[in-house]
UniProtKB/TrEMBL annotation:
Residues 19-235 form the Xylose isomerase-like TIM barrel domain. It comes from Tigheibacillus jepli. This is Sugar phosphate isomerase/epimerase. The keyword Isomerase applies. PANTHER family: HYDROXYPYRUVATE ISOMERASE. Keywords: Isomerase. One of its GO terms (molecular function) is isomerase activity. Transmembrane segments: none annotated. Coiled coil: none annotated.
Length: 255
């Protein structure tokens, strides 16, 4: 298993020295956040430090499930541009959110749109030798809207039907209420990345895990997982030095 760090974790204004620290600590890869103000510079810094590179595609104003045609075209254009840019840096994977239906009544129509658009973007990713990974998301517990891939079945069905790979966010899964070990075994060789953090099973806090994750690592061993474990940690809770000095982080880096 490879140990990576999400660059959401280091905030918006890091310099080359931060990437050198990440490399020296033992991380082998980083996942760029396309929405960061300096995402292009972060790509260059990562390449300069010989770190493997992944990408979290933008999502805040680019709803994959949107019924608005102009937003749809803009979303496809921006994501295609990022996939092509990632390929120039020999990027390995790109994580995507499934978007959201404006209301729960629109779920089925939204899912049709998501499938069509994921298929289009997956074709772009394949042409650029990048794996597109669908991430699980936290459900709307009010049931006002519908977050796509916020149930295990919906997420799994999309991955299987579109012949994609999955990015498992452990914090999101904790709020969803599903078993981490069972989910890992369920996806098997379709699991291609893990966003690693913990929370109170209510909110997406992105804390550093501090408990025994034996069941998770046993499940990963059972499926022969060799992909990235990407620490995705709250930059408003931790500094980069806090992360690199943390005993749990150091122990995982030694594995």
């Amino acid at each position: 298993m490879e140990k990576w760090l999400s660059l959401w974790s280091i905030g918006q204004y890091a310099e080359l020295a931060a990437f050198e620290k990440i490399k020296a600590a033992g991380f082998v890869g980083v996942e760029i956040w396309a929405e960061h103000l300096r995402a292009d510079e972060y790509l260059a810094f990562a390449k300069q430090c010989d770190l493997k590179i992944g990408l979290h595609l933008p999502f805040h104003d680019l709803n994959l499930a949107t019924p608005d045609e102009k937003v749809k075209e803009r979303m496809l254009e921006v994501n295609q541009n990022w996939l092509e840019k990632l390929a120039k840096y020999d990027g390995k994977h790109a994580v995507i959110h499934g978007g959201y239906a404006w209301s729960s009544e629109e779920r089925e129509d939204a899912l049709k749109k998501v499938k069509e658009r994921l298929k289009t973007l997956n074709e772009v990713a394949c042409l650029n030798h990048v794996e597109l990974l669908l991430e699980n998301l936290i459900p709307d517990k009010l049931n006002y809207g519908h977050i796509v891939a916020s149930t295990l079945k919906e997420w799994s069905d999309l991955v299987q039907e579109l012949d994609m790979k999955a990015c498992l966010d452990t914090g999101h899964l904790a709020v969803m209420g599903d078993s981490l070990a069972e989910t890992i075994r369920h996806f098997g060789n379709r699991l291609a990345s893990i966003h690693y953090s913990t929370n109170d099973c209510v909110s997406d806090l992105h804390f550093i895990p501090d408990n025994d994750e034996h069941a998770m690592f046993q499940a990963l061993s059972d499926i022969g997982y060799q992909g990235p474990i990407v620490y995705e940690l709250n930059p408003y809770q931790y500094s980069l030095d806090d992360i690199l000095r943390n005993e749990h982080v150091q122990a995982l880096l030694r594995l």
